[in-house]
């Protein structure tokens, strides 16, 4: 049985406060990176890091759900030093979280530590961020490009795909946090959350920089392909991803920064999904018209 959104009336509640609470508790991790890792650059430190990097990466692959959430929370808190949460339309925030739930509950990974949470960033730029542990941030500028609920679902499916494919954790692997973990002479799975927090206090800002620079093209393409699967699983129209990419192709040139810096160009993403999209034709009944009214009412 598929879980789909059934909304008679969206109650105006602001869930942004609940989303912010755990993130704001980690704002201390958004301090400027100091020079505490500089000693690793000497030959002895570099050799030690080289010898242990393989085992550390294996340890990061086995990171616990709690630690994954903790890392994502720290990075999310850091992101919120550059963006403000949009609280002008609580119904829209609730709506996005309901779409998120509909997608993840029909996916191969419906449950993660503390669940998935979506918030809107008060920015006109076209951008989105997904951190480990289920944190999703979508800018108003990107939401304005979506002209249907299925288009919103395509945006969210792409970000959910990043989380389920552990792309944020992979970004951390290339971060100097590896060096910090190496100096502890312990695997990350053996670290207490408090110890991991101390490391992130130095590394969170650099991790955010990696997110703001964008995932690799390979990761972005993989997230688009997984998004098609997620859309079909929740019985959204998979071609809505292509529709959304076409909208981005029209809108991105007028919005400097954002996706222009963090994502492959829309035409490249369009080419990437064209062939995989064919296998999903006729897999889902086209029910987009049933969702038009609630989309118009909420957005």
Can you give me a brief rundown of this structure?
With 299 residues, the chain is mainly α.
Q: What's the shape?
A: globular
Please state the structural category.
Answer: mainly alpha
Can you tell me the number of structural domains?
1
- The helix-strand sequence is HHHHEEEHHHHHHHHHH
Main β sheet profile: 3 strands, mixed
What is Rg? 20 Å
What share of the residues lie within helices? Answer: 55-70%
Mean pLDDT: 77
User: How are the strands of the biggest sheet laid out side by side?
Assistant: 1-3-2
Spatial separation of the terminal alpha carbons = 28 Å
Annotation field: number of helices:
14
Low-confidence stretches: 6-18, 22-53
Percent in strands? under 5%
> Care to count the β-strands?
3
What topology does this entry show?
Layout: H1 16-24, H2 43-61, H3 65-79, H4 90-105, E1 117-121, E2 128-131, E3 135-139, H5 140-143, H6 149-164, H7 167-173, H8 177-183, H9 193-213, H10 217-233, H11 239-251, H12 259-262, H13 266-278, H14 292-298
Parallel strand pairs: 1-3
Antiparallel strand pairs: 2-3
Helix pairs in contact: 1-3, 2-8, 3-9, 4-6, 6-10, 6-11, 10-13, 11-13
Describe the structure.
- The longest helix is centred in the C-terminal third of the chain and has 21 residues, at 193-213.
- α1 (16-24) packs across α3 and α6 crosses α11.
- It is built from 14 helices and three strands.
- The chain has one domain.
- It starts with 15 loop residues before the first helix and ends with a helix.
- The model is unreliable at 6-18 and 22-53 (pLDDT under 50).
- The protein has a three-stranded mixed β-sheet with strand order 1-3-2.
- It has helices at residues 16-24, 43-61, 65-79, 90-105, 140-143, 149-164, 167-173, 177-183, 193-213, 217-233, 239-251, 259-262, 266-278, 292-298, and strands spanning 117-121, 128-131, 135-139.
- By secondary structure, it is mostly helical.
